[in-house]
Design goal:
It contains 20 helices and no strands. The chain is mainly α. It has a domain at 10-50.
């Protein structure tokens, strides 16, 4: 049997690697966005040459998450035909195609450990290059304008034309990928000490992107890992050093780049009045109680969305009519700010409930969260659990399904994790090899 950990890659594996690299290059530097779509389509088509249809069918039966993902997309297709606003429906359906293509393409192939590590390495490197481009462009803009605002949030990631919260999520994953490769003993990338320097740069980038949820996720995970390390390995000094380093680094970042903290100050002003015509707060201005901000806007929107969920609990209001129905609910509550800005739900789970009801939420949760997490846990695949957990949390403040960027990133990264699940046939072969080795040792 072929050594699944071998670093010798087949022609098909090399082609897949090149396609993934091209996908990220065209994704981060969208001179011609249509090229990225072509690359996604190419990955989808090539996946049918990567392994046999029989193997795909076998993997599909093992990876039931992909079946539920397909069922969720089919529900969206049906919803589009049932919608009154057909133009909006099919626009949204087209935007969500990556949620179908990536799971079919990657979810029906197996990425052996050496190939999986290789892809993580290149993906993390490309995210790092994009972060360097963002930093360089932001620094250049600051040199021209002397305005520190260009160093933060969406202004920081404007060079790659990506919203900061989505790019921050990718930077979070890149940090986890590097760390995973460093601590994995059998990985070909475990001895690259320069990754530690890159991780520090990515943590700086992460802070400047000023995504509240991603900062909470990353810093909390570091603290949890430090406590786990102390308890599991009795390494009190190393764990304490990590925590102290995190605290010192955070203190320096907050003092030298204070505008990021403005994003957190908004959380202190959660009261809202639907009829308020206050300005929307910004990280580059003083936060006051009379403003609309990231916290109270969401609470007001969720209140209106809850009324739609109560009125249409089973199957929702349909994909093409969701935004129109939401705006109508804003009007009923005299929520003029919401009407004028046509705010979406700012929560993926609430969005699915509003659009597709309880039926849609069950399919969505099983396909994208519950089943992949269970299988990651059963495979003792810690990185898989972590990546899924990241998406669980980042989908709370944002509607990933309403953004092309959200659909692409969620579709790709969750499918990448599913592709790394070890097939039962490989598990059986490994058990047989272990058994044979034990018998040989006994006989000797």
């Amino acid at each position: 049997m072929e050594n699944i950990n071998s670093s010798k890659f087949t022609t098909k594996e090399n082609i897949l690697t090149i396609l993934v690299i091209l996908f990220f290059i065209t994704f981060f530097f969208p001179l011609y966005p249509v090229i990225c779509n072509v690359v996604i389509g190419t990955i989808f088509v090539f996946s049918f040459f990567f392994n046999s249809l029989h193997e795909k069918w076998t993997l599909l039966k093992e990876r039931k998450a992909v079946i539920f993902i397909c069922a969720f997309y089919l529900l969206q297709v049906i919803s589009a035909f049932l919608s009154i606003n057909k133009d909006e429906a099919f626009t949204m359906l087209g935007m969500r195609v990556p949620l179908f293509l990536f799971p079919i393409a990657l979810g029906t192939i197996y990425l052996r450990p050496a190939l999986f590590d290789r892809l993580l390495f290149y993906i993390a490197n490309l995210i790092t290059i994009a972060a360097f481009v963002c930093f360089g462009w932001a620094a250049y803009q600051y040199k021209l304008t002397h305005d520190p605002a260009v160093l933060y949030n969406d202004s920081f990631s404007i060079a790659i034309e990506k919203q900061s919260i989505y790019f921050a999520m990718m930077v979070t994953l890149a940090i986890y990928f590097y760390f995973y490769l460093l601590i994995k003993k059998e990985s070909a990338y475990s001895n690259k000490s320069w990754m530690y320097v890159v991780i520090l740069f990515l943590m700086f980038t992460h802070f400047m992107l000023a995504s509240r949820m991603n900062i909470i996720i990353l810093y909390s995970s570091i603290l949890l890992f430090a406590f786990y390390y102390v308890i599991r390995y009795k390494k009190v000094l190393e764990g304490a050093t990590l925590i102290i380093g995190l605290l010192i680094g955070s203190f320096l970042l907050v003092n030298f780049f204070p505008k990021t903290i403005n994003r957190f100050r908004e959380l202190g002003y959660t009261s809202y009045n639907f009829q308020s015509h206050g300005k929307e707060s910004h990280y580059n201005m003083e936060v006051t109680a009379d403003q609309w901000n990231g916290a109270n806007i969401r609470l007001a929107v969720w209140k209106c969305a809850a009324n739609l969920i109560k009125a249409h609990p089973a199957f929702g209001v349909q994909i093409g009519d969701k935004q129109d129905q939401l705006v109508e609910e804003y009007k009923k509550n005299n929520f003029d700010f919401g009407v004028q800005s046509r705010r979406n739900t700012h929560n993926t789970y609430i969005d699915v409930l509003v659009t597709f009801g309880i039926v849609g939420l069950v399919l969505f949760a099983l396909g994208f969260i519950i089943l992949p997490f269970i299988q990651s846990f059963q495979n003792k695949f810690a990185l898989g659990c972590i990546v899924i957990a990241v998406f669980v949390f980042v989908m709370f403040p944002e509607t990933y399904l309403d953004r092309s960027l959200g659909n692409i990133t969620m579709g790709f990264f969750l499918s990448l994790i599913i592709a790394a699940f070890v097939p039962k046939s490989v598990q059986s072969a490994k058990r047989d090899e272990t058994t044979d080795a034990k018998h040989l040792k006994t006989s000797q």
